[in-house]
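Allow me, if you will, to draw on your knowledge of protein folds for a short while. The matter concerns a single protein, recorded as an amino acid sequence and a row of backbone structure tokens. Kindly check, if you would, that the fold set down in the tokens agrees with what the sequence suggests. You will find the record immediately after this paragraph.
***
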Amino acid sequence: MSKLTISIGNNIRLYRKNKLMNMEQLAAKINKSKPTVSKYERGAISIDIDTLYDIASALQVSIDQLIEHSPSGGLKETSGQKLKKHFLHNTLYLYLYDGRTKRMTKGLIQTYYDESAQASRATMYMDVDSFADYKNCKTLYYGTAEEHDIITNLILQNQANGVEVINIIALNPLNGDEVMRALLCGISSSPFVPVSFRCIISAKPLPENDALDAQLQISRDDLKVIKKYNFLAGQSLQ
């Protein structure tokens, strides 16, 4: 079995579970047996292109989402925009602090360039316990990434709930810094309201300590700014 076959199998399992679909249900949708689907997910047998399209259709994902992305496939230059080195990293690490659970929440973002669509794509594995096992995430998002001179925008859709779309607005780092300050805006499930989180996106994992927690949490100075200007900023304005 090849690395590509194993990777495709892992992705099929990831999206199937994210859709709360069992093997029997997927097998029925693609007219295959459960043992055959099990072999696909283990990477024990290769998948012909017609079946791969059937699986993508059954899981309501694109072929690109099932196929392994190239390790060197960071965002490329598109539409005349010169993409900065921080997004040439294929993998990015996101951190935010969730006051409801009183803990730091981590996400891993993979970026690549879709030649057929001439667009930059992003997959975000959100709420992971360990980056070493990032595909064991609580929520999976997929969407687009656009980088401009000053900011980078990511628009990502929840793969289990198409109604939920989040927007990440990040300030591009200066002076070769590999950390971006950002806001993540979306819908909270408890309570069900629009929310924004301050977050940090890094080209490499950061030490998970009190100092990082402090950067993510809203301070007293931030509250003064919110009261004065009636908005939450991605980084302190004081």
The longest strand covers residues 103-114. Confidence is low (pLDDT under 50) at residues 69-86. The radius of gyration is 19 Å.
